[in-house]
Amino acid sequence: MNKGICFYFGFSNDPEERVKMMKDAGFNCVITSNDKKFNHQSGNLKTQIELFKKYGIKPSTLHMAYENKDLPYFFLKGLHGYKLERRLKKEVRLAKKYGFSCVIVHLGGLPSDVGVERLKRVLKVCHEQDTPIAIENLDYNDTFFDIFKRIDDPYLKFCWDIGHNNCFSHGFDFIKEYGDKLVALHIHDNDGIHDLHTLNQFGTINWKKVAKQLASLNRDINLDYEVRVLPKDNIDEENALKIVFGQACELEKMIKNEREKLK
User: Fold this and answer.
1) Contact 218, 180 (CB under 8 A)
2) Cα dihedral sign for 194, 161, 26, 218?
3) Per-residue model confidence as pLDDT tens digits over 206-221
4) For residues 207-244, b (16+ Cβ closer than 10 Å) or e, as one string?
5) Is residue 65 a contact partner of residue 38, using CB atoms and an 8 Å limit?
6) Is the pTM of this model over 0.90?
7) 8-state DSSP, 120
């Protein structure tokens, strides 16, 4: 199974050095975004893609650029919502251009006909570009559920954020309900209350249960880790990569073991 990590995971060192370290640690794919406010950490998207190609790291998923305060406008009439729609269409085209499997989307705000129609227009671009969007489960999922009830489209997919499931929707089985639409993972841990994006040794997630859920799909999916290593963790970049890659290998092993049980 492919194993990936977010390009920025808590260290703002030279981007090329970071890509090389990721490759040396064993990762073969990466998740990133086109959000210009993070350029100071990792460079612009074009520069990142050049580095990924140089070191043989495959683009996995592209995360939409956003500000939390702006997300509700997607479901409201007006210029702000139009701009969000236009930006998302642009990112679908960028994902196609650079070889990402999909665009990860945050949906915030109250469900509305306006938002549904905006999303349908975005999906037209997805069809043109043969590139899906994947809606991520967040701390507020009414809109998530509403969209999947109201739109049936092969290019409308699901990104399972396992950490969010643990602290915001504990006990809800997203794989049972939306596993057929799953195309991407955000893997990280937390204390069951706060969205920490931490390493497994600091969290509470039952990874054996996660492995069972993923094994039930009977198809491989990139094991992409969306973690943030903090100064208080007292872990340097090289060891952080080693730890995360080890966790990915262990999760893969558990998934394979669970698949064997299902035969």
Assistant:
1) no
2) positive
3) 999 999 999 999 899 9
4) beebbbbbbeeeeebbbbbbbbbeeebebebeebbbbb
5) no
6) yes
7) H
